[in-house]
Amino acid sequence: MSLVRHPFFSKNKLIMFRKSYIVIMAVLMLSVAACTDKPKQTEGEPVPVFIEMTNQDTTEVLNLVNQYLGYLTDGRTDEALGMIKVLDGDSIKDVPEDLLKKQRNSIKMLHPIRYEIESYIFHFENDCEVKYKGILFDKADDDPTPNTVSYMIKPVRLNHTWYLTLADSQDVNTINSDIEN
Predict the structure, then answer these.
(1) Is 22 helix (H, G, I), strand (E, B) or coil?
(2) What single DSSP character describes residue 40?
(3) Nearby residues of 146 by Cβ (< 8 Å), 6 or more positions away
(4) Residues 6 or more apart from 94 whose CB is under 8 A from it?
(5) pLDDT tens column, 110-140
(6) How far, rounded to the nearest angstrom, does the alpha carbon of residue 71 sit from its chain's CA centroid?
């Protein structure tokens, strides 16, 4: 018994159908791959440069912060504020005198009995944060009375040296403080 093919299923048409199927599938796969959800960088947008943070960097920053907090705890406000700098573009500068006065008054007004680091985050050389709290008075564990005030300081690495800068100082011209005394 011989198998009779329908003219629609001729050998040439089957080969052409298979080739067309392969081409269509390849085009579909390429179009799906091109439509992924990758964020596209716009022209002129800066490319973030990630730094390799080592244990030495972490230790150096935490030592700086602990020295700063030690000065504050000991009431050595001038030494503590002497460690704080301002990022001005690509350079580090001393804190302007008017802001230094505001910071000094803020510290003296609250004068916590001790300070503790709460958390720290390292993103980039100029985008790190250390959150710390000042403990205003000791209290019992079951006492609901708030006794802390939180602060933020921004460590910045410039020319392979770490500096502590004020959390709201992007540059010397945009520093702002709400404390007036």
Answers:
(1) helix
(2) P
(3) none
(4) 85, 86
(5) 888 999 999 998 877 777 899 999 999 999 9
(6) 26
- What is the secondary structure of 45-113 as a DSSP string? PPPP------HHHHHHHHHHHHHHHHHHHTT-HHHHHHTEEEEETTEEEEPPHHHHHHHHHHHHHH--S
Confidence of residue 166 (pLDDT cuts 50, 70, 90): confident
Give pLDDT, residue 4. 56
pLDDT score for 66: 95
What is the pLDDT at residue 5?
A: 57
Q: Which residues contact 121 (CB under 8 A, 6 or more apart)?
A: 128, 129
Predicted model pTM: 0.63
CA distances from residue 121 to 32, 62, 83, 118 in whole angstroms, order as listed: 37, 11, 20, 11
Q: Indicate the residue type of 4.
A: V
What is the distance of C-alpha 88 from the center of its chain? 19
3-state secondary structure at position 30: helix
What is the model's pLDDT at position 170? 46
| pLDDT score, position 171 | 41
Of the candidates 132, 25, 146, 145, the residue with the CA atom closest to the CA atom of residue 71: 132
Between 22 and 36, name the one with better pLDDT.
22
